[in-house]
Fold this protein.
Amino acid sequence: MTTDTATTPDPSAPEIIRVHTRRVACDGVGGALGHPRVYLEMGEADFVECGYCDRRFVLAGPEVPEEEQLAPGVYEGAGGH
């Protein structure tokens, strides 16, 4: 069976964060160790990767809790935290 790499997350990503929205913002770990805040949109795929820190944000179903508390610097939706 073959997989489409454009829509299938790579399990070897440095950090995988499950979120409930298709639009997220990432600033790395925040503060001096972070990077400029970037807003990321998943589009048709169920994941998106940050171009700065390689964090992978994966769309999770409602039965899966968000990992936002474990991942500082992640903001979901238009309002952030």
About this structure: The mean pLDDT is 75. The longest strand covers residues 15-19. The beta strands are 15-19, 23-26, 38-41, 47-49, 55-59, 74-76. The domain at 15-76 is CATH 2.60.260.40 (HSP40/DNAj peptide-binding domain).
